[in-house]
Amino acid sequence: MKTDQSLVESAPSISTDDAQAMFNKHLATYRKIVGENLMFHHEVYGLLHNLLSQEMLKPFKFLDVACGDAVASAAALKGSAIDHYYGIDLSLQSLELAREALKSLLCPVDLRCCDFVEAMADWSDSVDVVWIGMSLHHLQSEGKVRLMKNVHDTLTRSGLFLIWEPTLLEGENRAEWLDRFSTYRIVCAAITDEEFAAMEAHMRLADFPESADTRKAMGRQAGFSHAEQIFLMPNRFGRVFQFWN
Ligand SMILES: C[S@@+](CC[C@H](N)C(=O)[O-])C[C@H]1O[C@@H](n2cnc3c(N)ncnc32)[C@H](O)[C@@H]1O
Predict the structure, then answer these.
(1) In angstroms, what is the span from residue 66 Cα to ligand 1's centroid?
(2) Which residues line ligand 1 (CB under 6 A)?
(3) CA 63 to CA 37: how far, in whole Å?
(4) Which domain holds residue 102?
(5) pTM (2 d.p.)
(6) Fewer CB atoms < 10 Å away: N or C end of the chain?
(7) What angle, rounded to 10 degrees, do the helices at 174-182 and 193-206 form?
(8) Mind listing the pLDDT tens digit for each residue in 46-78?
(9) Which of 89, 93, 138 has most ligand 1 atoms within 8 Å of its beta carbon, as the pocket-test mutant?
(10) How many domains does the chain have?
(11) What CATH number is given to the structural domain containing 37?
């Protein structure tokens, strides 16, 4: 695992990973989607901001797993008591943007260009809040639980784990969730047919949503005593969950 200034020299050979290469290629599309608030980043990261401002009154360490360009995280953390930011992402291009966005934070910023599964398996610094925005769903069920266990072991006793993830409606399966997403094309007027098709292709290749009940059960399996849904996206494609002890 490499950090900070060594980012450029240490980029992993992501061209071997189809899903990641596809994501990098469409980073500009993702930023457009976020800019148009098509995924409700405004509401989700507004909720994160309120939660951190109200519940984390003492200095805290924040780990952003799959941070991407961290623009929304930087805004959510502004004015909070954060005293150390850690960000992990496989995309060097995103981390370079993150470095700029996080300049607004008045604390050390530690960016690591690596696979979050590997990073969390040997994470040694204890943290107070772990946030995963739209990224855990790339793993299969067993991998999700293992990752959540590693998060649990990384957190301080009063720590918080928050995830924002694609979520199935009750009784819905993955294929139905993906088909439901196809009908969202009409709302995404700001992006081209080609961009929407690329996003769908990425989702069909790499997205494995879970139901809310499964998600909460996974949290308990990972060692958390409490699991609660705290937000439902207005388009009902995803939810935010909070886990704690
Ligand atoms: C949909 S974006 C989410 C970005 C941001 N968290 C958000 O809420 O908008 C997914 C991010 O996960 C990263 N990613 C996907 N798989 C990864 C992995 N195995 N290890 C590290 N980063 C990964 C991608 O590079 C991308 O930046």
Answers:
(1) 4
(2) 20, 23, 66-68, 72, 88-91, 94, 115-117, 133-135, 138
(3) 23
(4) 4-244
(5) 0.92
(6) N
(7) 170
(8) 999 999 999 999 999 999 999 999 999 999 999
(9) 89
(10) 1
(11) 3.40.50.150
